[in-house]
Amino acid sequence: MKRLLKRISVLFLCVSFTQLAFSQTRVITGTITDDKGAPVQGASVAVKGAKGGTTTDATGAFSLTVGANAHSLVVSSVGFNQQEIGIPVDNKVAITLVSSAQSLNDVVVIGYGTTKRKDVTGSLTTVTSKEFNQGVITSPDQLLSNKVSGLEVTSNSGQPGAATTIRIRGNSSVRGVGNPLYVVDGVILDGRDARPSLNLGVGGFGQTPEDNPLLFIDPNSIQDITILKDASSTAIYGSRGANGVIVITTKTGSSGAIRMDASASVGFNVGYMKKYDILPFGTYVNALSKYNSAGRADTLNQGAHVDPLEDITQSNPIQNYDVALSGGNENGKFRASFLASTTPGFIQNNKLNKYIGTFSGNYKFLDKRLTVAFGLITGNVTNNDVLASNTAGSAGNLISSALQWNPTKAYYNANGSFANETNGTPNPLAMLKGYNDVSNVQTTLGNISAAFKILPNLEYKFLYSINQSNGTRNTNIDGFIAGIPPITGNGVGIIETAALTSQVIDNTLQYNTTFGQDLHFTALAGFEYWKTNYSGFGVAKQGFNFNQNELSLLNAQYTDIIQNGQTYVTNPTSGSDITTEIQSEFARVDFNYKDKLYLTGTMRIDGSSKFGVNNKYGYFPSVGAKWNIANESFMKDNTLINGLALRGTWGITGSQDFPPGASIDQFAFGAYNSASQVNAGNPDLKWEQTMQYDFGLDFAILNNRLSGTFDYYNKDKTNILFQNVAIQPGPAAFYWINLPGHLVNKGIEVSISATIVQHKDFQWDLTANFATNSNLITNFYAPGTKNPLAIYTGQINGQGVSGTLGQVITNNQPVDEFWLKHFEGFDQKGNQIVSANPTFAGNPNPSQLFGVSTTLRYKKLSLVLNGGGSSGFLIYNNTATSVTNIAGIANGRNIDMNAYKSAEQPSSGVAASDRFLENGAYFKLRNASLTYSFGNIGNYIKNLNVFVAGSNLFVITGFSGFDPEVNIDKSNGGYPSSSIEYIPYPTPRSVLAGVSFSL
Amino acid sequence: MTISKYFKISALLVVIGAAGCTKLNETYKSTVPADQAAAALGPAGVGLLLQSAYNDLPGIFVGQDQLFSLEENSTDESLVPTRGGDWDDNGVWRVIHNHTWNADHGQVLSVYNGLNKLNFDATNVLAFAPNKEQAAEARFLRALSLYYILDLYNQFPFRNPGDTLLNAPKVYKGPAAIQFIIDELEALLPDLGAANGSTAANPAAAKLLLMKCYLNRGAFNNRAAPTFDDADMQKVITLGQQIMASNYSYESKYFHNFNNVNGSSKELVFAYPATENSSTNNPGMQARWMMTFHYNEYTAQAPNAGWNGFSTTSDFYKTFGAAGVMNYTPNDTILDTRLGGRRLSDSLTTAMSGIKPGFLVGQQYDAAGNPLKDRKGAPLAFDPVIQPTMIETGSNLEVTGIRVAKYVPDFSTTYGGANYSSNVGNWLVIMRYPNAVLMLAEAMMRQASPNNAGALALVNTLRTARGAAPLASMTLADPTNVDTYGTLLGERGRELYFESERRTDLIRFGVYLTTWQYKPTDDPKYLVYPIPNQALAVNPNLTQNPGY
Hints:
The structure holds two protein chains of two kinds.
Chain A: H1 2-20, E1 25-33, E2 44-47, E3 54-55, E4 61-67, E5 72-76, E6 83-86, E7 92-96, E8 107-110, E9 113-116, E10 124-128, E11 151-155, E12 164-168, E13 181-184, E14 187-188, E15 199-200, E16 206-207, E17 222-228, H2 231-234, E18 245-250, E19 256-272, H3 281-291, H4 294-300, H5 308-311, E20 318-329, E21 332-344, E22 351-365, E23 370-385, H6 398-404, H7 428-433, E24 435-455, E25 458-477, E26 492-515, E27 519-542, E28 567-576, E29 580-593, E30 597-608, E31 617-628, E32 641-655, E33 666-670, E34 674-677, E35 688-701, E36 706-718, E37 720-725, E38 734-739, E39 742-758, E40 762-772, E41 774-778, E42 790-796, E43 804-810, E44 817-820, E45 823-826, E46 832-834, E47 839-842, E48 848-858, E49 861-871, E50 874-877, H8 878-882, H9 897-901, E51 917-919, E52 922-937, E53 941-957, E54 980-981, E55 988-998
Helix pairs in contact in A: 3-4
Chain B: H1 3-20, E1 31-33, H2 34-41, H3 45-61, H4 67-73, E2 82-83, H5 92-98, H6 106-125, H7 132-153, E3 155-158, E4 170-173, H8 174-188, H9 203-221, H10 230-245, E5 268-272, H11 287-290, H12 314-318, E6 358-360, E7 362-363, E8 381-382, E9 391-392, E10 403-405, E11 428-432, H13 433-446, H14 452-465, H15 488-496, H16 502-508, H17 533-538
Parallel strand pairs in B: 2-9
Antiparallel strand pairs in B: 3-4, 5-11, 6-10, 7-8
């Protein structure tokens, strides 16, 4: 084939030579559409072998003046395979691009710049907007689930807007959350938001879940998301790159007529993806008799028939409306969009409302030598939460009430008041009605940049950005809810506010040149200054005079009339974090020899105010090399292989993920007229160091219809920033040190894309990814000793297991290894027997991650399926341990089916043990969407699509809880936990139908 | 492009870079760096720091899972049975009562850290130029923490003011340890404010602590075979007599020491205050009754009146009567008021609850006198019999065990009893006058020429104040049975039960390793708690106690 082409081109060459004499030009016009018939905007169209070219406008149309000797066009666009087409005699073309995740000429975002995929030496994956997951999407990270090998995105719960646990290449944190660094349009985010976190200090509910800090970004306005994985890609972010970097690029305007894109969708939560396995009604009634005396069973069977897990849910419509205007010409482009969305949760009263406006522009001056660009994102996000806390004790929370509630007990008394149980389980509907927790976060992310081409190949760029987030949260628990002392009869009102401001100033200088003919050289140097402030305030009162009786409620909330509360739960508190400043210098050089050999080197020097006085500055180098074998002359004649490259990278990244002020002794003011030293400062604190190497192979065969990537990585984290046990006597239980131990994550990553069928009317694409990870801590000793450290974490909560910790961070084990007593069966009386002492009980970190997506298109109808999962890990079912254990049946609470099927009797004690460790392996059909592309309708409506999409359609798993994709925050003393499920907000199955079009 | 152009660009970059350069000093807002603290806190700063040390006391002494658990659950006075789904808590309570704990026990760690925080905060006062009286108070608080660390862990770490916190501190062990505390107390005693009330370090509190040190010195130095040096006993006697000569006297109602207005008790030597209905100054004493009460104990809060946990052994309960009977009735006149319960007929019980303080056994009643029921609908009648395994599996598992409410539930009516489970008025009692009297009596019996008659007289005066019949004779202890009626150890139990004295007493009286209910065997290593593994890992100067 290739040989044939060569001959043809030789032929053309001859022809063109003859035509050259006439020096004619002609104008080619055409339209470019994607495989669904939608116009592709911004695709580049050029004559093969010539420089320059044009791009398509919003309707996918282009017009290109070519020389008479032009014989074929090369069309490329991000996310599509590059395509060549001969120029027909009528000078009109209609080109359908075939999507590809990995087109070599795609522009991909790297730190402080962009490059072409083919020039990348490191390991990174770009997911473009049309590959994004569809369905009910509330935050950008959900767009990526299962799309990227080695990227683990775990929704911590089924609540819309819930925080996600994101791990790139394994669990690499022995403190905090270990989330990656987020970079939005070149601006490094702080990673937090200003939604005040809530720990209900009364009633034993514990800490409530965090929300997702990226909610202010409109998923519809994202052009693409790039995940930087290896050190060569991330080291340019220096002391903050160790957990990987996620780079989000928002859409920009393109030249052409002004265009409006609009979309609307409506959806519903249609049921549980998977129900927690408690006793169904009939079995429950039998169980009452099985475990209780006849008289007692009669008392407990109260004659009604309710299904609490269903009765707490709702099916209010999910609605999303999005409008974007964009346009411009070659000297100026703009894009503005507005999103209004409401996502009612699966549980009543729970709702996430978002209003997000974005406005960006890009203008050229001084003969295009000066480019001024700005971007503004402003988001208003409101959460109405329900009482679903992470670390509830014996008082439980809404979900535990629903699980435990006696299904024969009616919720209401005859007079309409809430019926109350005498078994310690509050009425779930009362907990719904009496809990009102509204948080609002207003976030603005603005940036302005100016890029000046000092010389054609030398560009200076300045960028300033500010990210301001202000949050308020009003939480009310009405006093009428029975059974939760001391709230019952008192009520609680909590008002909290928080503010987060971070600012960035960047100066970069980029230079590129070519030495001789073949050696291309690009260099980037820059200076960055970054600063962040966080402050908060909170007041909590109880003892209110109203809303103590559900039959006579005021519309007012306690937080509307906080002065009515008679006592403070705790003193009002305010605090302001120490301002953190980072200043950095960085440089990158890229060599490209004949598109065959590539070499990249980066260096970043970070100075951070957080580091100790003795170590203010950190140095983060990396190198990467690639050999593009496909471009070697000996490959010229092969017809099978279209692309083949070998990569190798090495580098050091850092982390400074510890509280500001940890390096200096600090005194703080406390309550009751007191002040005290609050930490033991460590002036030697320095950045944590992650040395990573990566070997990779990229290939494409069969006319690019099958392509893939293999990577082997090894990340070794040392100088671990660690909150160490304080040497008593001391002011706190912990202080921060760099521990000389190692935390090693290594594994392989594979991703494969295939176009299985490629036909004009029918196309079938399949992409799959797979990754393995092994995680181990070594040399984990107390400083200066050979005494292994053992840090216990993973709070197991609930009645009967108070204070139990189920995980350990220690030497020669993976992070958060389960540490549990061994379950040895039941004795003759049906009491469970557990061993006296805990032992290592298994790994909570997935050993394998996998994802698969497939697109089937028949004419204008396309079906996209996306699923994935993980395996090789265990989940601890804390719900079964302490909420739905068998003891409940003696008091008329519902219990776990596994317990019912066992030989256990209600007298059996509650104990945390490996009995409740379950295999977490699962596969989830995360999204399925069916789209019909009408194309253009009439003269005005363009690119009309209608779609229906489903989310979380099914899960295959042996896990008995709601959702094996779970990570309730059960950290203890700042040490993170992993893979523990405890009365989580359940995951719904949902469907969404919508329409989108352009004008 | 010329070289000069490159130069200009580079210069531009440098200028821009330099303009943005900062020294990267942290900007403090809510906190003050140590080097500015002395100036920033000002003349009142020492007082603020001293208050922080006082504020460490509730964290150590209030919680049922803190010092109280290590000092009481390890004895015959207290245990926490597992009742069906309740209170297994990974076995942490059972191993304390069974004497089978290890160096990873969470309570062993948190008490060690809590006491050392007091140790640190008190020491830190001394680094800020305190006046003489403030220094004495700080040193008293430090001595208090060191005493308990030594008592529980057999050694204590010590830093001088201003020591680098990143270095492992020196550790005092053996005879030098208790000598250090004694020297401290003797030295600071003259400087303590004589006018200080019970909520601040005061001379009587220092003397009482000194009495404890002298009395226990022989036990601390050899817990397996305590000896009692006569000179130490004379010190105890002198100090005890000094306290008796000062302004303390027995309350006519024993539970006035523990109710919501106990701040006015004439027996309080050292206490931490609480302000009723206010969270701003409240140590949360309600835990001490909620930990023991049944869910349905108080109808207004049912089914959440309590946590259905802590109980006492029936053998300990029996020590209140010579005959050792199990079912004391309201008419048993031989019994003393310290038993509380149904016998108590004074205003300490409000009309709101029906719960009386003290020992709860048998049928429980609400305020109107109606019998209460448990969650299964069976009578709420506490059964003294606890399973030897401390794991209840019978049909009556909810109601096993005699309950002990030393602190009187605060049902103050202002807020309709709603403060029952928060913001109560009860002060935390740390040292009480009768302890000084009983130590004095003990020293009189232990001195080289024992004065048993004098000791018996002191004890009988106390008993009379408690409404109990005088003892005819009294020995120190029964070496084979900790729960023998006519002993001084028995009297200390009856007076000071649930006040975190029992473990130290049993060791000093040489009976800690004998068996008692639900503790079938023992090993000498349990005479002290282990150094928590976490602490041991970071301070090489600590040595693990033998056997762990």
